[in-house]
Amino acid sequence: MWLYLTHNYEIDGTYYGQKVKGYMLLEQRWGNGPYTKTWNVQNRIGSLGWFATEYADGTSDSGFWLCGEYGSRGAAFANSRGQEILNTQDINVNAKKDGNSLDMRFGDGQRWQFTDDPTASLGTIRTGVMSRVGERRRIVRAHALYIGKRVPSDGSVCRTEDPDGHGDHWHDR
Fold it and tell me: What residues are paired with 61 via a beta bridge?
């Protein structure tokens, strides 16, 4: 059993003598053993991601999404004015042609995309930019992290609908 929390922080200052400006993700976990030995890490059965995206007009969006097995899924996004952008369990995620970027569709019709940065990503831990499909505001700063399993050959990372009738919603063939 364990409790897991994440916090996105905007940072601007000096770190070990270097000027830094951007976003930092702080993960906190409380449990009865080392994180790498937990059942969830040893049997990764889903994917999750966090993001913070700042635009030239001074506004920003941030959020968290999860696609787990057996219906454990959801997305919660908000903007810098404290308004909810998205709060749903109806989530469908598919890999784009590069195999690491993601196309995300939500039940209310919103579409978002995770664009992978292959120079900063490693294996199933991917970094990049998260934005709405068709976003017109210019992105000036962004941080997005996606952790998941290898994407199955059909490209589905997670689906709310159950096309094969198995009730698992997670396709890892």
Answer: 53, 79
- What CATH number corresponds to the domain at position 146? 2.40.128
Q: How far apart are the first and last CA of the chain?
A: 28
Q: Residue 19 pLDDT more than 90?
A: yes
Amino acid at residue number 22: G
Helix (H) or strand (E) holding 40: helix 39-42
Q: Which domain holds residue 75?
A: 46-158
Residue type, position 65, single letter:
W
Count the neighbouring beta carbons within 10 Å of the beta carbon of residue 130. Answer: 26
**Three-class SS of residue 154?**
coil
Using only C-alpha atoms, what is the Rg of the chain?
Answer: 17
The answer to the question of residue 165 being in a domain is no
In the block, tokens 């995309």 appear at: 113
pLDDT 10s digits, 139-168: 999 989 888 765 555 656 676 554 444 444
Q: Count Cβ neighbours within 10 Å for each residue of 137-162 and write b for 16 or more, e otherwise.
A: beeeebbbbbebeebeeeebbbbbee
Q: How many helices (H) and strands (E) does the chain have?
A: 1, 12
In a domain, 170, yes or no: no
- The predicted model scores a pTM of 0.76
Predicted confidence (pLDDT) per residue in 100-119, tens digit = 788 999 989 999 999 999 88
